[in-house]
Amino acid sequence: MENIRKELPYTYKVPEKFEELQEYLQNYNADYQSIIVDRIIKCNHCPTNNTDEGKLSNLFLFLLQHVNNHVVGNDVGSIVNGFQIIDRLSPFLYDLAHLNPQNAKSVIQRIIKEKHDDFEEDKKKYPGLDTLIFFKLASLIFPTSDFRHPVTTACAIFMSEILFRCRIKNKIDISKGLFICTLILEYTVLSKRFAPCVINFLHAIIYVSSPKHLIQDIKTIPISKRIKHSENLLILDEDRSKLDVNPSSSYMKASDLIDGPLDDDFKIRVLLIAVNLLGEFKNHLEELEAVYSIFEPILKLLKSNSFDKYPPKVKKHIMQLRKDLEKLKNKKLKYIMVEKKKPKPLRLYGP
């Protein structure tokens, strides 16, 4: 990193156009770009100069456009590079947003609205990665624990709408859905709010991972009815019971965001991630009175499938989740009662 710092100029002017920023950043990797942006901000930030503040507000917009352009790709290298750029530039986007919070709020709101308008044109299709990545940026820049926030609340509603409306048809849809579920987990980790759309989606993942003849008599919640055409989508093609898979180190890959065949490795990882997410949401919702009712449909699916074709550690991990969900049944429901109030004392008159 020190060598990189020495190779680059120490001073930069604030770009007044997006093309000027591209001239600074083009042909450089994410590490170089982060240093360039850092030096642009440090060389031009003066708390008492309103002109510089306006220029840096434009820089915030240009960087968002830069990020948007680099997460659009059809190959693994482009997707990885896009995520690396986001990782390196996020701290500077945070700093710029807090230099002018009102401008940052307006810019992000406008972008989310544009993305939502595009989504409305085809409500059954998952939006592109350039839309999903702004949900991640919003959670990094703005607070997610507020009861109501002009940016993060809108993003949370948008993500819920995507999970509820979009159909699961292929590998990319599953990957994007799990990505959104993870983002909603980040959005609700502090507030511990209940997100029904996530539970529905994870229920759908368990549903398409279960053989049809085992679950045909089980009533499904509405989201599962939207994937009737995709039944058995995540059923293993072969017996994988001899594989050694570590449930705690299974992650999604950049290649999962590129269309392709659904191999058994992908199917196992998807099921594991869904189980891990269910465990996290179960921990968040344990304080709710209706927590068992929320997870009961998923528990029925887990009980109906023995998962014999899956690696032993995966099966053990699923059985542990099943036990944890069964324990929720012991939670006693409290009756809704009117709050007790002290009776008003009678006013007594003296003799």
Automatic annotation (TrEMBL):
GO terms classed as biological process: maturation of SSU-rRNA
Pfam families: Nop14
Record flagged with keyword Nucleus: yes
Compartments (UniProt record): Nucleus, Nucleolus
A single cellular component GO annotation: small-subunit processome
Keywords: Nucleus, Ribosome biogenesis, rRNA processing
Main location (coarse class): nucleus
Coiled coil: none
InterPro entries: Nop14
Signal peptide: none
Superkingdom, taxonomy of origin: Eukaryota
Family: Belongs to the NOP14 family.
Record's protein name: Nucleolar protein 14 homolog
